[in-house]
Specification:
Length: 352
């Protein structure tokens, strides 16, 4: 079984090809990130235009990398939500057209579920990937931490899952991005904040963990606490505009703020994941989404759980087509989510 996966929910035009739900044959990502960086966030119109330009070459490169041709694929899977509507449209219209003209079955994939399925990849024909030694086994506790979503989900089996908790406000990646903006570090924030955090001391400031019921969590109070702490550091009060903070803060202060913020943001997730682990006794724990690339998260999880955790390669944590192709393999195998190429519609607010 060989599936082609197309992902265009945000700014990455991404195409992957996966065999049997466990072997990565290709993973090609064209990002329009540099075009957005100057605006401090993704500009939807620029993202859609870039998808139009990048879509066909990215598909061609994915086939080249996999060293296979069209006839060898069994089906096409495409992200139809959640995401930016203009971006989703390009991927969905491309996949619909290909499915129709090549007479291949089409599967509509949920982006967030796709992130979880990146964890099922255990081998590859490509160089430069560090793959886990085995696929996760059910029940699986999935810690989903991306720029748009933060949630804890327990999977009893494929497509049989229960959302245990969600963020009540910002997603964790969004909090990284906002703190990065506040400290004048640029976009996307996760990578720069975590890099700078290595030079700071996480014990410098006593930032709060939001007390939220059950398995839910919140990051907006933490974000405000970083802002207040930064204002205090430069001798100003709460009326001082966040946009002007960065020019007054020293690099060492920024590093300490980044480290303290990262430590608490990650601990917020890890504490709730530990609570879920104790209650549901999963056989496997997986992490998914862009923030899964974060080393502090990997470190804190290793320390918190008395269980081996296999982490996906960083290239499979941020948005990619291989995760959609992997999910597509299981949809194909389990007969789930097959759609009519004439009618698949985008769902920008799709939930798990
Ligand atoms: O999953 P993703 O690629 O896109 C969404 O579906 O949202 O996640 C992007 C998010 C961004 O907020 C980015 O700042 C964050 O993932 N991110 C990180 C790291 N790498 C990316 N956050 C923390 N540490 C990282 N190393
Ligand atoms: Zn994503």
């Amino acid at each position: 079984m060989i599936i082609l996966g197309i992902e265009t929910s945000c700014d990455e035009t991404a195409v992957g090809i996966v065999k049997d739900g466990n072997t990565l044959l290709s993973n090609v990502v064209a990002s329009s990130m540099e075009l957005h960086a100057q605006y401090g966030g993704v500009v939807p119109e620029i993202a859609s235009r870039s998808h139009i330009e990048a879509m066909i070459p990215t598909i061609e490169n994915a086939f080249k990398e996999a060293k296979i041709n069209w006839k060898q694929i069994d089906a096409i899977a495409v992200t139809y939500g959640a995401g930016l509507s203009g971006s989703l449209l390009i991927g969905v219209m491309t996949a619909r057209t290909l499915a129709k003209t090549l007479d291949k079955p089409l599967y509509g994939a949920n982006h967030v579920l796709g992130h979880v399925y990146a964890n099922f990849l255990t081998s590859t024909t490509l160089g430069g990937y560090k793959m886990p030694t085995k696929s996760p086994t059910f029940p699986i506790l999935a810690i989903i931490v991306s720029g748009g979503h933060s949630q804890l989900v327990i999977f009893h089996d494929h497509f049989d899952y229960q959302v245990l908790g969600v963020t009540l406000d910002d997603a964790i990646g969004e909090a990284f991005d906002k703190v990065s903006k506040m400290l004048g570090l640029g976009y996307p924030g996760g990578v720069v904040v975590s890099k700078l955090a290595l030079k700071g001391n996480h014990k410098s400031f006593n930032l709060p963990i939001a007390k939220v019921e059950g398995f839910n969590f919140s990051f907006s109070g933490l974000k405000t606490a970083v802002l207040r702490q930064a204002q205090v550091l430069i001798g100003e009060d709460y009326t001082f505009p966040s946009i002007k903070l960065s020019e007054r803060l020293k690099m060492s202060q920024k590093a300490d703020l980044a480290a303290s913020f990262q430590y608490i943001a990650i601990k917020t997730i890890v504490d709730k994941a530990k609570k879920a682990y104790n209650e549901f006794h999963p056989k496997s724990i997986v992490i998914a989404g862009g923030v899964a690339a974060n080393q502090e998260l990997r470190q804190q999880l290793k320390e918190a759980m008395n269980q081996e955790i296999d982490f996906p390669d960083i290239k499979l944590c941020t948005d990619n087509g291989a995760m959609i192709a992997t999910l597509g393999c299981f949809m194909y195998q389990e007969g789930r989510g097959k759609v009519d190429p004439d009618y698949l519609k985008i769902e920008p607010n799709l939930k798990m």
